[in-house]
Predict the structure.
Amino acid sequence: MSSIAVNGAGIYHELRGTGPSVMFISGATGDAGHFERVADLLADEFTVLTYDRRGNSRSLPPRGWGTTSVAEQADDAAALLSELGLAPAAVYGNSYGATFALDLLLRHPGVVRSAVLHEPAMISVVDDPAAAQTSVRSAVQEGLARGGPPEAVDRFFRLVVGDATWDRLPTGLRDRMTSNGETLVGVELGTFESYRPDDSALAGITTPAHVLVSEDSPGFFHEAAAWLAGRTGFEVVQTPGSHAPQFDHPDELVRTIRPLLRMHT
């Protein structure tokens, strides 16, 4: 557990286990703890890297940082793998993290051995982007009105994973996640959803990858997965749980992805 300077930001990261390297990239609130249970289970076979994305939890942003992009987030991930000597690694990304992982495949293929893209938040590719974002926007706006950015995070995750799962998360993790409300609401939300590489770039990806969708996720995530698979040839795989199965079905998630991570080692 330590921090390293990456692209001008101090990136907190955790390493577990031994064996082929696997990086996990989290989505909203960007905390390494999203994958604590999953990382612990996989550490029997892999060197597992988790990290707090810039501006979230224990990763302090550069002074004056107030905007970001898919490219910046992917550059951070690529630089972290290189600095730690873990490239090429298998990369698993969830939601925003899956979008960043896709950008790694396009712009930093040398650091990626294979990838599992769980429900990339590429809302612009679905038939009705506005409808897909309505419930999230409503939850965030209600939270902001009632308690500011921390309450917006609370409402967001209660919508995504349900009250019971959210309330079961370790208190320290929930506190860090809610403390990231300023970054989520003020910097990230609405920034990454429009990401849409052109078809020729997607067709040119040669790194092995799978698209993962959760059985209980809203239909637009399945729609986006099918869109991406149709342009890349990636196989679509299903796993139990919600948009954040690392929280509500971590053991089942590990059973789903372990054989995918073993490929191409």
Observations:
- The chain has a mean pLDDT of 97.
- The first helix runs from residue 36 to 42.
- Residues 15 and 127 are 40 Å apart (CA to CA).
